[in-house]
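Internal tracking record. Fields below are filled automatically when a chain is submitted to the structure queue. Please do not edit lines marked as system-generated. If the sequence contains nonstandard residues, flag them in the REMARKS field before resubmitting.
Queue: standard
Priority: normal
Entity type: single polypeptide chain
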Amino acid sequence: MKLLIVEDEKDLSDSIVSFLKDKDYLCEQAFSFNQAKEKICMYKYDCILLDLMLNGSNGLDLLKDIKQDNKEAGIIIVTAKSSLEDKVEGLKDGADDYISKPFFLPELAMRIYALLRRKNFNNDNILSTNDITINLLTKEVKIKDKVILLTKTEYDLLLFFIENKKRVVSKSSIAEYLSGDMADMMNNYDFVYAHIKNLKQKLSPCADNYIKDLLWIRI
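SYSTEM-GENERATED OUTPUT FOLLOWS
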C-alpha cells in the first residue's frame, strides 16, 4: 500500500514514515503545499495523510485538489487544530477521517488500516477469492488450508491484482505501486515480470488461471 505524508514538520514526518515502514507501507513525503500538489498530480496513492497547516497554506485547498486528481485515495486529516468547524469542513470536502495532534503512532496506523480495509476490501479483515484466503491483519495467505509464504513485494502485488480485478493496467502502474516515485528512474520493468513470475510459482498450480482472471497487463 502506498501512502503520501503531507506534513511540514520534518521530524514528525520522519517519525511517521519510520513507524509505518515497519508496518510494510510504502511511504512518500511532501513538506509543502506545492510539493504535495506536484506529487498528487504525478502519482497515485492509496492513502494521503494531510496536515491542514502547511507553512501558511490552507490544507483544505489541497484537499480539494486531491479529490479532483486522486479520486480513489483515502484521506486522513492530521492537524493540531482543535476546531470542530475545521474537522467538519474537511469531512465535507471529502476527507475520510481525521486525527488530532498529538497522537499515538499505533492509533494512526490502525486508522490507516481501517480506512484501506473499508475502501478496498469491503470492511472485512478476511479476503477470499477463488481458493485463496488472505488475512489482512496478519498478512497470512492460504490456498485452501495451506499457508503460502510471500515476500512483502509479492504480497503487495497480490493485493494489487485483487484491487484491480478485471482492469487493464500498465507495467508502469505496477512499477509505481511497488516502488513509488523511484519507478521514474528505472530503465525497464524487468523487476515487475520477475515478481509476477515468483508470485505465480508460489501460488501454483492455480496461479495461471487465477492471475489471468484477475488482471490484464497492457504491454
